[in-house]
Design goal:
The protein has three domains: about 170 residues, D-Amino Acid Oxidase, Chain A, domain 2 (2-Layer Sandwich); about 240 residues, FAD/NAD(P)-binding domain; about 30 residues. The chain is of the alpha+beta class and about 475 residues long. Strand 9 and strand 10 form a beta hairpin. The longest helix is centred in the first third of the chain and has 21 residues. The chain starts with a helix and ends in a 7-residue tail after the last helix. Strands 4, 5, 6, 12, 13, 14, 15, 16 and 17 form a nine-stranded mixed beta sheet that branches.
Length: about 475
């Protein structure tokens, strides 16, 4: 195994635990389902999509009986493991939206902005203590070919009425001091940094206060339709009991789902994250960062990073690891090789922070689709709807995804359900072993593209022609 003394020293005491979830105020789990219940709506999954589904449904109809079944505990999956970048984009960035839905992109931008406003309104109304910071995000170029890409991105944002500031190397380093920066694009609006675990726990508390019932440690074993008296219904069964409901929304995202259709549209890829100890005053001064913006570089393999509310640096990204057969689970949450790579890149970006140590390291699965955005569908005669595949930008988009799923399962035709992004499914990932082969070929091609100045090459160009790809 290769060693890097600087990275190894920094990682020596890092706990294999999720920083956001590693807190004494973490809520106690609810008891597992241990009986048979009746409800109007059952939600499978206690992450952001499931939480927003439950809260939006009960706020719209206060008399609706809603049950949420979670295989582990609230926010145990991607909802509690991400960087807390709450982005208004519903399309994994403006450029991806333009590539897939050019005729709808202005509508999608507006709906994304409205969705973020609605999210923040919910946070305020329910006094959810997720420390929202309206700082925006700086996308940084660290190689010459990326500078041109930022210039093109700035023009596209301006054309669509989105406020951005293009920064040269000195201006970028004046915001966040790294010798690697060649340029930056500061999106001043549209990105809010949050504490994702506190957001999830707050959404759950709000839903519980309105009568939603939660059952943790209740993985779903089956979902089928049946007749409840004279009415068709859905029965969702766990090891300890079942819920019979008029309708169901499945919000399992990257994890195993009782709806087979989801696995054709979604592939789980593991993202890994490090968090440092709190910075001293001198260390903060050495990096500047007085604006506290979120930051990400713009390569195919990229890093995202931010300051936490207590002035640590959260640093994630780079590898997107797919495990054969859509495997997910605790055994895959730690990757010493990836953690070491992340640590090495951290000190290359911030050499002035040599000696800083990491306190937490973790990984978790992101659900990606071939177009990098959420996908929706219905099953069981329309009594079940699902949403999955936010490709790393689900903190904000999950609220929109949940509202679309509710529209679908309740049979409502809305502006949301009329979108091509909702009506047309992404190109499915092939079955194994072709899925493994295609994803690994794409990962290697993306790595080559970064090494070759952004040139896409034959394989990526072919995927581009069909509007499909792989990302995290």
């Amino acid at each position: 195994m290769n060693t890097d003394p600087l990275a190894d020293r920094a990682l020596a005491d890092a706990r294999p635990a999720v920083f956001w979830l590693d807190r004494p105020n973490r809520p106690h789990p609810s008891p597992a389902l241990a009986s048979d219940l009746n409800a109007d709506l059952v939600v499978v999954g206690g992450g952001f999509t499931g939480l927003w589904t439950a809260l939006c449904a009960v706020e719209a109809d206060p008399g609706r009986a809603i049950v949420v079944l979670e295989a582990e505990t609230t926010a145990a999956g991607a909802s509690g493991r991400n960087g807390g970048f709450c982005d208004a984009s519903l399309t994994h960035g403006l450029e991806n939206g333009l590539a897939h839905w050019p005729d709808e992109v202005r509508t999608l931008v507006r709906l994304g902005d409205e969705n973020l406003v609605g999210l923040l309104d919910t946070v305020e109304r329910h006094a959810i203590d997720c420390t929202p910071e309206h700082t925006g995000e700086i996308n940084v170029a660290v190689t010459p070919w990326q500078v041109e890409g930022l210039t093109e991105s700035a023009a596209a944002h301006r054309d669509h009425g989105m406020e951005t500031t293009l920064l040269d190397a000195a201006q970028t380093r004046a915001q966040v001091n790294s010798p690697t920066y060649l340029a930056g694009l500061w999106r001043r609006d549209g990105v809010v940094l949050v504490d994702p675990a506190h957001l999830a726990w707050g959404l759950r508390s709000a839903a519980e206060g309105l009568g939603v019932r939660f059952f943790d440690h209740s993985p779903v074993r089956s979902l089928r339709t049946e007749t409840d008296g004279d009415h068709p219904a859905v029965r969702v069964r766990t090891e300890g009991g079942s819920v019979v409901a008029e309708r169901a929304v499945v919000a399992t995202n990257a994890f195993r789902s009782p709806v087979r259709q989801i696995s054709r549209s979604v592939a789980p890829v593991y993202d890994h994250v490090l968090v440092t100890e709190p910075l001293s005053e001198a260390q903060r001064a050495s990096v500047g960062w007085t604006g506290r913006q979120g930051v990400s570089d713009v390569g195919n393999q990229f890093h995202y990073y931010r300051l936490t509310p207590d002035d640590r640096i959260l640093w994630g990204g780079w590898d997107a690891l797919y495990h054969f057969g859509n495997r997910v689970g605790p055994a895959l949450e730690q990757s010493p090789t990836t953690s070491r790579t992340l640590a090495r890149h951290f000190f290359e970006t911030f050499p002035q922070l040599e000696g800083l140590r990491f306190t937490h390291r973790w990984g978790g699965p992101i659900a990606t689709t071939s177009r990098f955005t959420c996908a929706w569908g219905t099953s069981h005669g329309g009594r079940v709807a699902w949403a999955a595949g936010y490709t790393g930008l689900g903190v904000g988009a999950s609220r929109f995804g949940a509202r679309v799923a509710l529209d679908l399962v309740d049979g409502r035709e809305t502006e949301r359900t009329g979108l091509a992004m909702v009506r047309r499914s992404p190109f499915p990932f092939p079955p194994e072993p072709l899925r493994w082969v295609a994803i690994q070929a794409t990962r290697r091609a993306l790595q080559r593209s970064d090494r070759r100045g952004g040139r896409r090459g034959t394989w990526l160009s072919l995927l581009d022609r069909f509007g499909i790809g792989f990302d995290s």
